[in-house]
């Protein structure tokens, strides 16, 4: 859903908490892009360290890409 939101509303801004003290508006692409990179990083980290399989992280990144492509159509 985040991917479709980013594709359909590229200039939207998201209100997000910072240190549970204040709220800050950030661009949707920055917020969602950070989330995507977070999923990708931790998926690779778990894969490299063999601590877990990282399947859940890779499923999130794969569905993110598929959803973004579907929203473009």
TrEMBL record:
<dbReference type="GO" id="GO:0016020">
    <property type="term" value="C:membrane"/>
</dbReference>
<keyword id="KW-1133">Transmembrane helix</keyword>
<protein>
    <submittedName>
        <fullName>Rhomboid family protein</fullName>
    </submittedName>
</protein>
<dbReference type="InterPro" id="IPR035952">
    <property type="entry name" value="Rhomboid-like_sf"/>
</dbReference>
<keyword id="KW-0812">Transmembrane</keyword>
<feature type="transmembrane region" description="Helical">
    <location>
        <begin position="54"/>
        <end position="72"/>
    </location>
</feature>
<keyword id="KW-0472">Membrane</keyword>
<feature type="transmembrane region" description="Helical">
    <location>
        <begin position="12"/>
        <end position="34"/>
    </location>
</feature>
């Amino acid at each position: 859903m985040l991917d479709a939101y980013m594709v359909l509303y590229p200039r939207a801004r998201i209100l997000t908490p910072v240190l549970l003290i204040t709220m800050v508006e950030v661009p949707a692409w920055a917020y969602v892009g950070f989330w995507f990179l977070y999923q990708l990083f931790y998926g690779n980290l778990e894969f490299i360290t063999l601590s877990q399989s990282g399947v859940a992280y890779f499923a999130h990144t794969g569905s993110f890409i598929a959803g973004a492509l579907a929203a473009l159509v």
